[in-house]
Amino acid sequence: MTEADHNASAGVPEKKTCCAAGKPPAADAVEAGAGSESALRQRAQRGATAGMVRLEGGSFRMGTDNPAGFPADGEGPVREITVDPFYIDIHPVTNRRFREFIEATRYKTEAEKFRWSFVFEGDIPRKDYARLVKDTVRGAEWWCQVEGANWKHPEGPESNVKTRWDHPVVHVSWNDAVAYAKWAGKRLPTEAEWEFAARGGLDQKIYPWGDELTPEGKHLCNIWQGTFPDFNNAEDGYTSTAPINAYPPNGYGLDGITGNAWEWCSDWFNPTFHQTATRMNPTGPLTGSARVMKGGSYLCHKSYCNRYRVGARSSNTPDSTTTNTTFRLVRDV
Prior knowledge:
It is a single chain. By secondary structure, the protein is α+β, with helices and mostly antiparallel strands. It is 14% helix and 20% strand. The protein has 6 helices and 16 strands. The protein has a 4-stranded mixed beta sheet with strand order 14-13-12-15. A 3-stranded antiparallel beta sheet has the order 3-6-16, with no helix packed on it. It has a 3-stranded antiparallel beta sheet with strand order 7-9-8. The radius of gyration is 18 Å and the shape is globular.
């Protein structure tokens, strides 16, 4: 999407889910079809493995038939998938690490190019709402179009990340994440790799740690508590993003794999393609209009968007940026 196309459509942003507002697909976007799956993913073996965990791969049961899920998202059916060994980041890319990329490359993110991004209304100071908010998403008015919001200024031009260097970087599009990955000599995970890693060695559990959301009353991820979108009582300690290591890691030693911020995957999104796709290192459809996101965010709540379950999935257009979308990378062995 060109900047002119983007700005022309900015007044009518598109509702995706309660947890992810998105820009309309670019004019030249191609809807995902039933064509052949990509034979080979783009391999990445140049990046350093410091801060990563090596996973030996193997077979696992992907997806879910959980009745609490969203069938229209294509969460099921459960199917056995095999992935090759790979390295994966222990935690999402932080503001500190993203700043190193920006300083090294002078890269300009899409939120900066387009001069606005989506911000959750509860993150905007009430006194500044009328001045900062230019538009909202129809049907999901808690998503606000804020000029000057980007990775350095998450809630608008007067905010900053000075106390959030160890938080996941947000307001990054799929395209921004790919640019970072190329610089780092790595790549975005496939949806299958992401889910294999997120499960932490457990079979068909709802969450990375088991089937109970708060075992013994303990919060293990950063999601919404209270009544969405009006009141978050912050029982888990946070009303917005949390530091990357705020909660215990999963069985593979990965931090913040669910909740906190959505994580981009490399696959094009399609709710039915995987039903007939290969079961060996699946990479998703060849074409599409939106990319897969996994893990949920601090805005997810069981009453409306319980997509912080491991088997859940969502999507957004590749140039969309929000206050709750981030990424982590993988590297081939």
